[in-house]
């Protein structure tokens, strides 16, 4: 059974994130604690810590989902989807931000599929300032859902 809860156990979150191969410099507990306007989510699978994510309010219009990671032995059980859903819901219902952004490595196809299922669209592709990795910036607007059919003039604006 998957349970998602908010967490301020920054040491545990930092320990879980230290296992992520996607992070060039995994954050320390101190860095996590110092992140302003941020809520962390801890996934428990049958009571065991199995994944993390967070949502950070950037400004009036935007929140950013960060550090979405599931421990390898717990993957393919729906945990990432639950974490992402919780982050997006928090952005919309608690932070009242209509736009949520996320970044992923260009090669991380499973997360691309997850983002698309949750209504995100690719906005831009760019080189990471921290490494040689190429990243994608994803955007999700609370006013359009994955099933929202765009008007013809909107399709012209789609990236």
Structural class: alpha+beta
Strand content: 25-35%
Identify the CATH homologous superfamily.
Answer: Gcn5-related N-acetyltransferase (GNAT)
Low-confidence stretches: 144-159
The separation of the N and C termini measures 38 Å
- Number of structural domains: 1
By DSSP (H or I, 4+ residues per run), the number of helices equals 5
Q: What is the helix/strand order? A: EHHEEEHEHEEH
User: Under the CATH scheme, which architecture would be assigned?
Assistant: 3-Layer(aba) Sandwich
Mean of all residue-level pLDDT scores? 90
Number of strands: 7
| CATH top level label | Alpha Beta
Principal-axes shape call: globular
Named CATH topology: Aminopeptidase
Describe the structure in brief:
This protein has 159 residues and is an alpha+beta fold. The protein has helices spanning 10-17, 29-34, 79-93, 109-117, 152-157; strands at 2-6, 38-45, 48-57, 62-70, 99-105, 121-127, 134-141. It has five helices and seven strands.
Question: Could you explain the architecture of this structure?
Answer:
With 159 residues, this protein is an alpha+beta fold. The protein has a single domain (2-157), classed as Aminopeptidase (3-Layer(aba) Sandwich), CATH 3.40.630. Helix content is 28%, strand content 34%. The protein is built from 5 helices and 7 strands. It has helices spanning 10-17, 29-34, 79-93, 109-117, 152-157, and strands at residues 2-6, 38-45, 48-57, 62-70, 99-105, 121-127, 134-141. A 7-stranded mixed beta sheet has the order 1-2-3-4-5-7-6, sandwiched between helices. Strand 3 (48-57) and strand 4 (62-70) form a beta hairpin. The longest helix is centred in the middle third of the chain and has 15 residues, at 79-93. The protein starts with a strand and ends with a helix. Mean pLDDT is 90; it is low at 144-159.
């Amino acid at each position: 059974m998957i349970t998602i809860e908010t967490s301020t156990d920054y040491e545990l979150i930092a320990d879980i994130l230290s296992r992520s191969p996607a992070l060039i410099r995994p954050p320390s507990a101190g860095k996590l604690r110092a992140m302003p306007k941020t809520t962390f989510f801890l996934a428990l699978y049958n009571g065991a810590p199995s994944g993390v994510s967070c949502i950070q309010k950037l400004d009036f219009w935007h929140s950013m989902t960060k550090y979405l990671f599931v421990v390898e032995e717990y993957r393919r059980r729906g945990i990432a989807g639950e974490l992402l859903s919780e982050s997006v819901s928090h952005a919309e219902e608690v932070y009242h931000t209509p736009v949520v952004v996320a970044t992923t490595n260009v090669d991380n196809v499973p997360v691309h599929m997850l983002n698309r299922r949750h209504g995100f669209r690719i906005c831009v592709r760019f080189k990471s300032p921290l490494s040689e990795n190429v990243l994608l910036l994803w955007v999700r607007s609370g006013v359009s859902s994955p099933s929202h059919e765009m008007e013809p003039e909107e399709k012209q604006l789609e990236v």
